[in-house]
């Protein structure tokens, strides 16, 4: 019997067609992950990613913690991105990331991750690290909006 109440992913998931977000990935079939399990995986990755990014941001304001900030912030962003793989499939997500409509956003996002590390660990520059984190955030937002029909026209 399905749990009742406001946090019932089975009943909420019934409103989403199986083909829209859960197209199926061979990894899901191989691992036997249900729709609910995939929603939990997405929620867990999103939450962990947010907490890691938040902790990294807090460390930015402590002296001498630039490297920790960069590592935690970028790790949080990547974990959140991995979480979306639970929704559409990991291999499908990789294919979609490099479609013409979002390839530029993807490349800027990936380059900004590398540049955050370079600014933090090689150059030891707080200002450049923050600038590249802002670029990373904007590229990630652009990448996310590319999945919404007609969002690029706004």
Order of helices and strands: HHHHHHHH
The best one-word shape is: globular
- Count of β-strands: 0
Sheet with most strands: none
Low-confidence segments: 6-22
- Mean of pLDDT: 80
Instruction: Count up the domains.
Output: 1
| Structural class computed from helices and strand pairing | mainly alpha
Cα-based radius of gyration, to the nearest Å: 18 Å
Distance between the termini: 44 Å
Q: Count the helices. How many?
A: 8
- Share of residues in strands: under 5%
State the oligomer: single chain
Helix residue percentage: over 70%
Could you explain the architecture of this structure?
InterPro entries: Vesicle_transpt_Got1/SFT2, Vesicle_transpt_SFT2. Belongs to the SFT2 family. Keywords: Golgi apparatus, Membrane, Protein transport, Transmembrane, Transmembrane helix, Transport. It is found in: Golgi apparatus membrane; Membrane. Nonessential protein required for the fusion of transport vesicles derived from the endocytic pathway with the Golgi complex. With 154 residues, the protein is mainly α. Helix 5 runs antiparallel to helix 7 and helix 7 packs antiparallel against helix 8. The chain is built from 8 helices and no strands. The chain has one domain. The radius of gyration is 18 Å and the shape is globular.
């Amino acid at each position: 019997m399905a749990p009742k109440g406001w946090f019932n992913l089975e009943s909420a998931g019934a409103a989403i067609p199986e083909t829209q977000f859960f197209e199926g990935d061979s990894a899901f079939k191989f691992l036997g992950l249900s729709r609910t399990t995939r929603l939990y995986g997405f929620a867990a990755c999103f939450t962990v990613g947010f907490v890691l990014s938040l902790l990294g941001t807090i460390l930015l304001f402590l002296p001498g913690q630039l490297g920790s900030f960069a590592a935690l912030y970028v790790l949080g962003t990547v974990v959140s991105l991995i979480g979306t793989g639970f929704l559409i499939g990991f291999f499908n997500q990789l294919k979609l990331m490099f479609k013409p409509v979002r390839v530029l956003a993807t490349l800027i996002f990936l380059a900004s991750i590398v540049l955050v590390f370079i600014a933090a660990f090689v150059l030891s520059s707080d200002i450049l690290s923050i600038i590249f984190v802002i670029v990373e955030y904007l590229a990630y937002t652009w990448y996310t909006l590319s999945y919404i029909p007609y969002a690029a026209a706004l």
